[in-house]
Amino acid sequence: MEIQRILIATDFSPRGERAVQRGAQLAAEHAAELYLLHVLPALPLEVFKRLIAETPLETEQRLYNRAKAALQNRAEILALKGIRVKHHVAIGRAHLEINRYAQSHHVDLIVIGDQGESFAREFFLGTTASKTLRTGHHPLLIVRQEPRDKYKHVLVPVDFSKNSLNALEMALKAVMDASIHVLHAVEMPLGQKMKQAGFDAEQVEHFRSQILIHAREGMEKIVSDYAHGDRRVASLIEYGHAPDMIREKAQALDIDLIVIGKRGQTELDEALFGSVTKHVLYETPCDVLVVNP
Questions:
Q1: Pick from 6, 95, 172, 173: most CB atoms within 10 A?
Q2: What is the largest CA-CA distance in the chain?
């Protein structure tokens, strides 16, 4: 799959503008068609009662025209840069309209801004980004940093599951000139229990070495199968708790994008997307691309 159609959801805020800039940058890199979408909420009747002498229909039309003009202006600026742009104003619930538009236009990537300083606290309490992830099936890029340049250093955590391999595949297609670090964190939660069960230190160490050997073999295979000799790709194996290793490597390698698979699809999406994905969204300051299964 190539990146041919990119959807940017914007609310005209500074975070929305970051999403527009990053999405436009990716569209230029991939010669992709760009869709700009703004969703107006369907305001309840009580709100209209407080508005001066306007009927709900008149107020809605006025807001719609204003949003359409703002999108038109943004689209014209991007078109001057040689980007093919379409724009649309929808009315409804943001996450539903974003996913509906993405589905009907066969979008390959959705780009959205983060939620500002309160993002970590609010993400799992019902933000547009989390709802879009939870109810949609498209890769979602959450833009947190000011997009001053192309992505240069990308981190892809893998656990050998299909979801994480989908993330690696997406990273290879989405970023053009970045170095891609494929990270597998080796955890041994049974180590302490083995000692308590009477295994000596040598046996525990042997078990640990076998896990590392298995991890190395797995990493060699996926880099071979997916990267096909791509010089941008380097594999990393670290021993420790996966979220801690991801956070440390993101800082040490100056990572500007993490691409990670969304876990779940039931049980409220594995307690909202799986613990590792959740930690990445909470604890890392860089952009995050979440790939749906």
A1: 6
A2: 82
Segment 3-37, tens digit of pLDDT: 999 999 998 988 899 999 999 999 999 999 999 99
Q: Domains in the chain: how many in total?
A: 2
Paired strand residues for 290: 140, 260
| 269 and 162 fall within a common domain | yes
In tens, the pLDDT along 77-127 reads 999 999 999 999 998 889 999 999 999 999 999 999 986 444 444 444 357
* Residue 139 shares a structural domain with residue 236: no
Mean pLDDT value of segment 247-276 = 71
Looking at the fold, whether 139 and 177 belong to one and the same domain comes out as: no
Q: Are 9 and 19 in contact (CB under 8 A)?
A: yes
- Co-location of 156 and 263 in the same domain: yes
DSSP reduced 3-state for 264:
coil
Tell me how far apart the alpha carbons of residues 164 and 147 are, in angstroms, rounded to a whole number: 25
pLDDT of residue 78: 95
Is the domain of 120 the same as that of 27?
yes
Is the dihedral angle over the CA atoms 151, 153, 157, 161 positive or is it negative? Answer: positive
Query: Does 105 share its domain with 154?
Result: no
